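Q: What would this chain look like folded?
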Amino acid sequence: MVGSLKMVGEGTWPEQRVAEVLAARDRAVAGPTAPAEGLYFVSVSYERDVFGDG
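A: My prediction, written as structure tokens:
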């Protein structure tokens, strides 16, 4: 996913290409695999009661 988004950000691919990649469900049509270095999840924040469960 990161490699595909990088291609869009660089202007190599049009934005709609990401939707096509996801719809294809085929890794071969996606962008290059990004190296794992430096990619990590830090946190997520939601507005209060975003899911309507309290």
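The CA atoms of residues 8 and 16 lie 9 Å apart.
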